[in-house]
Amino acid sequence: MSVDDASADAETPPASAVRVPQPRPTPLYAFLSTRLLRLEAWLQSHGGTPLRRSIQAFWAFLLAVGVLLLVGPVINEPLTFDDITSSAGEATDTWIARSFDADYQLSRDDDGRLTLEIEERITAFFPDDVDESAVERVIATQYEGHDLRPELRGATLDGVPVDPVTRASPTRSTYTVEAGERLRGDHEVVLRYALHDVAYPTEDPSSRQWYQLLRWDVFGPEWSHGVTDSALTVTVPRELADAYARQPSSGIAWLIVGGSTTLSPDTETADAVVYRVTNDQSLPPYASFWFAFRFEAGVFAMPEPSALFWVQAAGPFVPLALLAVTVLFALAARRVAWADARGRAWFVMQDTPRRGATPSADARLWRARRTSALVDALGAYRSEPSNPAAQRHLVRVARRTGRLGDLPWALTAYRASRTWRAQFAEGLRRVPRGFVRDAFIGAALGLTVVQWGLVRQLSYQVPLSVYWWPVAVVAVSTLLATVVLSIALTARPLTRDGALAEKHLRGQRLFLEQTSAIERTPLRDPLLPYVVMFARPARARRLVTGLLDQEGVSRQVTGDPTFVTAGRLAIRVSAVVAVIAALVLSITTTAGTRHALDQYAVLDDIEGEYGVFVSDIDIEATLTRGEGGEARVEVIETLDAVVGENLRAIPQVTRAWRDQVDGHDQGLVVEAILVDGVEAPLEQSRMRGHALVQTRVADEWPGAHEIEIRYTLTDAASALRTGDGWQDRVQWTALLPWWESSWQGIDVEPERLRVAIGMSTDLAAALDPDSGWLAELAHRRDRAPEPFATAFEAGDEAVFSFDERADDEYEPGSLWPGGAQFGGAQLTFPAGTFTGPSEGEWGRYSAWQVLPWLLSPLLALVVLLLSAVGVLSGRDRLARRGKTRDLVQWMPPALTVAQLPVLIWATLDAYSEDPLLVVLFASLAVSAAATWVVIAKTRRTPAPIVTPPARRRRARR
Questions:
Q1: 418-425 and 407-416 helices cross at what angle (nearest 10)?
Q2: What is the pTM of this model?
Q3: Closest to 713 (Cα-Cα) out of 735, 733, 687
Q4: Identical fold between 92-303 and 599-837
Q5: Pairing of the two strands 678-679 and 786-787
Q6: What is the pLDDT of residues 63-121, one digit of tens each?
């Protein structure tokens, strides 16, 4: 039953009306939206169009700033290698320091904070061709987050007091000692000033000890002058000297060239310790002359981080934070301020469409995004049911509605229709314009580009390959900006008239539901578009395709060849995933064909690993059965070492072992490291798939020492399958390839090596004949071990050992494990000798080892099979766009491309005669040829154009 227009327009709901609960925004959205509405009203009342243009100009200016940061010059760009090297040839273009003598006096003020009183004496030589009248000194004023608060004490030029001109920037102060005339020849400049809070807390990268570090470059942050002679004096009060965490040091550096020394007191008194450093080497411009004092934590009171520190620390995140806030406001605006007009809070049942409305317009009004195209197609078919084009279009749209592949096309059709634009002309929808919308668009564009520009500027200060967060910030800010723009540009709320029309559609849906129209509406019924509009997309598809089948329309029209069904989409996605999976495999894993890592590769970039030089090595191991029957190898390494001095990092005892063999974790545990009989602090970790241990000695310890390292393999045996069946194998790796590299110094290198492994006589009797000393190379892991010599028996223990000298390395029969060879022992026993070996571990390990050999041939085999399907398929089958055509068009090229990263992954360490190269390149060549054949065949098979037969009309009787 319908309700007349008078009743429909009344504000008082009739008895048959259905109440519509009004949406209630969250308190946060309501609060934010209220602020936006008030801001919009205030701006409108105080400026109107001129103010709006001014605000738009502000956002344009911000956008321009971002573009400048993104493509313009780099702010405070660090000097490059070429800049510094070229400056050495330009040293005579300005004055030269014949001598530079700096005096630093440390003190602690009443608040416990560090103060440096500095006096610099510079003998400046001005060549005749240099037109300068002043000496400038650049001093850092911001350092490690501290404001150094420089205080100028005074200056003299050739003994005459002068008032230096001071120029301050956010991070530096420049003191200019002006002569007032052109300077020539030698001139004496004395500059006195004070700095505060130069020390800062840090962790020593080698000892992992926290202390307060005073590290200062005497020449300052910008020193463009050559220096003939330089000297440094540092006076430290006795109370501070007693609080050293590590002995002070000093050094000079220029680019990658430099040297350092540990400081010794020049003079000492009861109140102070004086250090004096002199350097008679000429230094080029931009050289560094530094000193470092390390004090116990808590010696100095630390200041709060400076304001500039917070600006620099938080600055890169400001655009991101503002965008996050903007997203909240945009969501609030979309939910409340830009929400649909309320209309009435009720609706009544309607059995007819709105007066003058079309199904296409109502579909946009109802926001039927997924089914509006089907509504349009039904309308076109109903107006011309005998038109073959309308039939084809309806069938194709009906078959694709509600499917995942239809989503982009459906959303495009929803907005591209003329009926969508007509809603605005009829006053059913509005475009929210004004200050707030301009702000959203301006913020999304301006802040995002500024964020990109900041990251570009940061890339010159922070290596983005090491620090991931700048790139992540850009990605997140771009995503947030996209959200804001999509809300601001797509918000099209209903007006009150539109809201009333939407209530009419609610009533119409109620009528269709109560009359079960979806079960009995024929194809040409004028209400069918509304049934489709209100139905779920998948149900609408089934309804219309069923009606088309009933009336025989589907049999007259072929399917849409351009539509990608779920099956075809799965094939295409699988092709892309195959390439991505190959890339992920090659990037995140290490192929079983790669060479084993050597000592240098494992210990690379580990602070403190250099500086312990070993001449004599004695390694003694004992194989026993544990309480549970597992194989235990207890090892004691004794090293005669000399520890270096004047090194950048404190030398630490650093050892690395291979503890994962045949896919089995041997459970290596370091029990102690003793230096001259005293146990040293240590830290055990993993590094690049190896067990790593390093001491944590807190201070310099130069000289000769005896080092003892004790460790245990708690589960040393692994399973092994050979031609004779399963076996238990204990592979003890005492030394990695190139083990000598980390123990070699200028005057010390490994000279003697003794390795021994003992076991009970019953275990020795059970040894397989192929047991012996490791002969495995980093690039040839299949080398058989060197057989043991006759064991030395003492009671119920048998000991196998060798004692070699480096001088005899190349003598016949020498067991010295030099070069790329591992050092250790391989012991093979019958299966069941120990508990713990797992056949599953060996199986998984073996599968991973052969994967590089099998993966590419398997992919090539799949390519051949799919290419054969394409070649053997009939012309008509390939002409039709469907799963078969997609399968042979997409998968062979993708699997061929996927073999490229797999090839690089598997052959990165392959040598030129390696058979692996032949296997993988042959697989790639076969795949490429097969792919070319199938692509050529599918390209020569155009899709046919099917014309449906003309529909015959029945003659009327």
A1: 40
A2: 0.74
A3: 733
A4: yes
A5: unpaired
A6: 999 999 888 887 666 655 555 455 555 556 789 999 999 999 999 999 999 999 999 99
